[in-house]
Amino acid sequence: MKTKSLFTTAACCALLVPAFQANAQEETVVVEETAVLTEVPCKTHYYVDKSNNWFIQFGAGVAVPFVDGTNKAGDRESHFTANYNLGFGKWFSPYMGWRLSFNGGSLHFEDKGMKRFKYVNANVDFMWDMFNSLGGVNSHRVFSIIPFIGLGGMYGWDYEPAGEIMGKNGPKHNTWALPVSGGLQLRFRLCKYVDFFAEARAGFYGENFNNIAYGRPVDINVTVNGGFAVTFGGRDYQQYNPCDYLGYINNLNGQVNDLRGALATTAAALAAAEAQLPCPEVVEAEATVVEAAPLMATVRFGLNSAKITDIEMVNVFNIAQWMKENPEQTVAIVGYADKDTGTSSYNMGLSQRRAQAVSDALVNKYGINPDRLSISAQGSDVQPYDVNNWNRIVIFNVAE
């Protein structure tokens, strides 16, 4: 590979010969601009991957209708019956979710004698995790309160005896309704994937719900269910904080300033080369040059995490490419942890796991020979950065 002096001189000759042929001299101008950073609030944001936090629930309980009709004594009377529940949905953030919920069974009520019918109810519910919204996001919270509201449809059939609403062929034995509902769910975490829930729902229907159209205009059906909810992949949330990357931005700004200085130096060297034309003969020499390590030779981690995010995996890839281009080089992988969280002994283990995770990715994902890697952990005893959050990091060094 040609030396840098050969390359610079040859480039000067190529650029300056046309200028002398035109009997004109051009001036190199370096324009300096100031990079302006827009301040952003240092707030942690949470999000959910499209494939995660889907759940299915199943349970059973009781239902009691509050509808038109009285018993033989003229008093309103309702009866408890079995109710069954099935649903599935997704939490699309730590605060809000949706589900499609089915309830059904047989309802009994009095109207001058016992009457009964079967029904199935489907609702699209919008759910709010009150504790995550008001008390801070915590995917490991043992107990949560979840209010919900829903819109849906109901189909009832086998009214015995037939109601008083008439159809084409006499009294109707089935009916449709479009209820609105609301309720409250109490959720108890059993493990990462399974919760126990107990919830109550009140559904509001038109007066044809029980196939009797007199009295109060709104019929109500109250259900209370208990059961289990299974979350596929476990209930977990991703997070990011814009301030976690301020160190990268400051590093890049420093590199921009260095490049500006190098550009000014190059302009001065170009002017000196112009004064020495014609270009002197240069003796060629071969030299082996090791490519500089890629910029941003670090991998950042989340709080109490040794998992490499997709955003940070690009830095592991860059190091792998550099090591493939420089097969004689070895790299030291040094893990750190911030001192404001965890004990010193715990942070030492955490930094070791972070360094090991990066080494495993280089070896297993990018095919780097493990003999070219060394791993060490500094825990929170050594803090390479003054800002606490920046020290949740793995730093690459060229081993000597």
Could you give a quick summary of the protein structure above?
The chain is of the alpha+beta class and 400 residues long.
Largest sheet: 8 strands, antiparallel, barrel
Given helix and strand content, the structural type is: alpha+beta
Q: What is the CATH first-level class name of the largest domain?
A: Mainly Beta
The number of domains is: 3
CATH topology of the largest domain: Porin
| Order of neighbouring strands in the sheet with most strands | 2-3-4-5-6-10-11-12
Which quaternary structure do these chains form?
Answer: single chain
Shape label: elongated
Element order, helices and strands?
HEEEEEHEEEEEEEEHEHEHEE
Q: Percent of residues in beta strands?
A: 35-45%
Q: What report would you give on this structure?
A:
By secondary structure, this protein is an alpha+beta fold. The protein has three domains: 1-40 and 250-289, no CATH class; 45-239, Porin; 294-400, 60s Ribosomal Protein L30, Chain: A. It contains five helices and 17 strands. The strands form four sheets. The protein has an eight-stranded antiparallel β-barrel. Strands 14-17-15-16 form a four-stranded mixed β-sheet. The chain is elongated. The relative contact order is 0.12. Residues 1-28 have low confidence and may be disordered.
Tag the structure with descriptive keywords.
400 residues; alpha+beta; Porin; 60s Ribosomal Protein L30, Chain: A; 3 domains; eight-stranded antiparallel beta barrel; four-stranded mixed β-sheet; 5 helices; 17 strands; 36% strand; disordered N terminus
List strands and helices in order, with pairings.
Layout (H helix, E strand, L loop, with lengths): L3 H18 L23 E3 L6 E13 L14 E11 L4 E15 L3 E15 L1 H6 L7 E18 L5 E2 L2 E2 L2 E4 L2 E10 L4 E13 L11 E15 L5 E3 L5 H30 L22 E3 L9 H16 L5 E5 L8 H22 L7 E5 L15 E6 L2
Parallel strand pairs: 15-16
Antiparallel strand pairs: 1-13, 2-3, 2-12, 3-4, 4-5, 5-6, 6-9, 6-10, 7-8, 10-11, 11-12, 14-17, 15-17
